[in-house]
DNA sequence: GAGTCATTCGTTG
DNA sequence: CAACGAATGACTC
């Protein structure tokens, strides 16, 4: 079930170029809500998982955040690996280059 | 500097 | 209708 809100989140997320990452706060702001939780939930329930680069979304603290409902574990390792392939390097579970952050305002 | 508490939006049961 | 969820921000210790 895809709602209008989710559509906005996916669109904003698609607006992020490869090799860049965005934060839940930025996405939330882009869709017009102040609760990154709603964004996280939309991504968690993402019906377009492979179509939506949900792995390009990280926490505002430059931390890896979560992936597929898991805030830690193998899923996170895979997320970091995927981002590394795109040029986004994570260090100790955090973004090594903050310059890769992309604000989709 | 690190840890904890309260806040907020949307979805699902 | 009520509870939960990929978080954030601010305050306190």
Written account of the structure:
The protein has 105 residues and is mostly helical. It has four helices and four strands. The protein has helices at residues 4-14, 24-31, 36-44, 74-86, and strands at residues 22-23, 57-58, 90-91, 94-95. The strands form two sheets. The protein has a two-stranded parallel sheet. Strands 3-4 form a two-stranded antiparallel sheet. β3 and β4 (94-95) form a beta hairpin. It starts with a helix and ends in a 10-residue tail after the last strand. The chain binds a DNA duplex (13 and 13 nucleotides) through residues 1, 3, 5-6, 23-25, 28, 33-45, 54, 57-61, 65-71.
Could you state the oligomeric state of the chains shown? single chain
Major sheet: order of its strands? Answer: 1-2
Topology as a string of helices (H) and strands (E) = HEHHEHEE
Number of helices: 4
Mean pLDDT, to the nearest integer, reads 94
Cα-to-Cα separation, first versus last residue: 26 Å
Provide the gyration radius in Å.
12 Å
Please give the share of residues in helix. Answer: 25-40%
User: Which structural class do the helices and strands define?
Assistant: mainly alpha
Largest sheet, in brief, is: 2 strands, parallel
Shape: globular
Low-confidence stretches: none
- What portion of the residues fall into strands of 2 or more residues? 5-15%
By DSSP, the count of extended strands is 4
Entry summary:
This protein has 105 residues and is mostly helical.
How is the secondary structure organized here?
Layout: H1 4-14, E1 22-23, H2 24-31, H3 36-44, E2 57-58, H4 74-86, E3 90-91, E4 94-95
Parallel strand pairs: 1-2
Antiparallel strand pairs: 3-4
Helix pairs in contact: 1-2, 2-3
The protein binds a DNA duplex (13 and 13 nucleotides) through helix 2, helix 3 and strand 2.
């Amino acid at each position: 079930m895809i709602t209008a809100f989710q559509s906005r989140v996916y669109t904003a997320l698609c607006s992020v170029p490869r090799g860049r990452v965005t934060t839940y706060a930025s996405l939330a702001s882009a869709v017009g809500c102040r609760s990154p939780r709603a964004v996280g939930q939309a991504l968690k329930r993402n019906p377009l998982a492979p179509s939506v680069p949900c792995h390009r979304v990280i926490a505002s603290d430059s931390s890896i955040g979560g992936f597929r409902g898991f805030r830690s574990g193998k899923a996170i390792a895979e997320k970091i690996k995927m981002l590394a392939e795109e040029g986004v390097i994570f260090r100790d579970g955090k973004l090594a280059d903050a310059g890769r952050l992309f604000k989709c305002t």
